[in-house]
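Reproducibility note. Readers wishing to regenerate the assembly model reported in the main text can use the exact inputs given here. Chain order matters: entities are listed in the order in which they were concatenated for prediction.
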Amino acid sequence: MKQIFEISGFLALKEIWRNRSRFLLVSLVIALITLLVLFIAALGEGLGNGNREYISKLDAQLIAYQSKSDYLIAASRLSKDRVAAIRRVDGVADVGMLGTANATLILPGDVKPLKVALLGIQPGHTGEPAVVQGQQLSTDLADEVIIDKNTALRTDLKVGDNLTLRTTQGTQDEFYTLRIVGIADGQQYSLQPSIFVPFYTWDRIKPKSEAEINNPNPVANVILVKLKDPAKINEVSASIVSQVNNVETATLKQAIQALPGYSAQQSTLNLQGGFTLFIGVLVIGGFFQIQILQKVAQIGVLKAIGTANPTVALASIIQIVVVTMVGVAIGGFLTFLFSLSFPPTVPIVFNGTTTAIAVIALLLIGPLSGLVSTRYAVRIEPLKALGLS
Amino acid sequence: MNTYALETENVTKTYQSESGVINAVDEVSLQVKLGEFVALVGPSGSGKTTMLSILAALLKPTSGKVILDGQDLAAMNEVERVSMRRNKIGFTFQANNLVPYLSAVENVELMLRLNGRLDKTGKMRSRELLARLGLAERLHNLPGQMSGGQQQRVAIARAMIHNPSLVLADEPTASLDTERAYQVVETFAGLIHEQNRAGIMVTHDLRMCEYVDRVLQMRDGKLVKIYTNKTEIMDLVKGKTN
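Running the prediction on these inputs yields the following structure tokens for the assembly.
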């Protein structure tokens, strides 16, 4: 076996080296496919992350929605009394109201205003992100905010700065000045950078219609539920639904899948990635098939002088693997270089797992697409190849 | 005790065609001794190439025996025949002889590599053999950088380097001009005699029989005549014999 590897490796590598321009061209095509696949994967991860980041990092296991809201956070309305009712359910450790809205962050000078997700949370309760710099929010009514890392990166705002938010109240634009007390890590929501404000402050400054302006009862969108024992998620979920009127619950995974456009977006990008890989299979397979067709006589000679079929097959596989590996390496390096030039606003995230899966898939398509040509090489009859029959 | 390196007994190869059964090789029996260089001649369709393929363990006869070094090639399976081709047989072809991405010396060493015998001595022998064939300056040239005659000489070196019992050449001069053709066959014959191998050359060019010890003439799949006498052979070479 060692000898087969030795001879196959010798033949495969010699041929690659002596025809390096031709093989490099194929590697470059694979590099371009790699670049495309990695970017699609990173874009999928970036867009998905931008949608789900806040939800996926929640220190909660369940989210309670208004019944029949189809797990749409913006469509759900839950009054304050529901918070108390859910808190009383056995197995619940903590609950926190979450209100979502959009606002415009006004930046000094000629800087373009930034659209942000304005999230109302209860200080000290589930839903308040942990700060990596500064401190947590103090009270439910404080004019304080925590901004996420994305907001800080895009605006250069720091802890202690004041920021101005613009929202529409009825038909009038209103401006609110709040003080930044902390910066949390990335907490994007709905593909927007996030600003967290105490719930009652949120209720005061969130955009409202004329009818809502004088409503004295604050309404949250959903209630975030932290469990005493996450393993009992099904039992507690059933208890909440049975004991609290007009609510339905979802796990974080269900909630993420229900985010508007999330599933469609991810499946579209996955499909694109899959098609790109498929094109890769055809391109690599086509190249090696053409190459084998050009080498029929040469393989015939090798077989005629006593080269065994496993050696011929292994040489072909080694070539495909080497060419694919070189292509993927070049593509990976190009991707890395390109990624350095992207501003933080571009939703491209090179997640280790996703990138590793993409790279493994790319490395596998070479040998997979070369199966046909390898089989063809093994089936070459030396007699026919040499014109002796 | 068997004194022949190669011996065939009633070798027959039949093909089924639309018009019926064709005997490409018909009951051919021949013997070649070590150190003997034999030419297999005959018109197109006489069966000489089929016979050569059978002797090279590339084709199984329909019936009969092909004994090489005491082993019957006709009774072997594909794996065994591949092993025989690698160990016991040397082969040169009409064209496309060499692996195009290996240099002259690498092409020769390939046979030793395939046999797991490429050591320092083997490498040295490969270089010496190529040097003897006038290719000392061409060791590291790729086939595409050499003339047809030089390529044939590299192929001869490759066919001999692993000390095979049987060396076969299929129209080795087909793509060469007359002067180079003579040089190649003379070299080939010299090495076969010197290294004590059994050599068989298929050729349609009777002039090349000048260097052989015997000529086997085939027609319609049968071995019809054997020329052993040097005068007879020279008459054949000069076209005095039909």
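We highlight two features of this model. The mean pLDDT of chain B is 90. The interface with chain A takes residues 49, 52-53, 56, 58-59, 79, 82-87, 89, 91, 93-94, 96-102, 106, 110-111, 113-116, 142, 158, 170 of chain B (CB under 8 Å).
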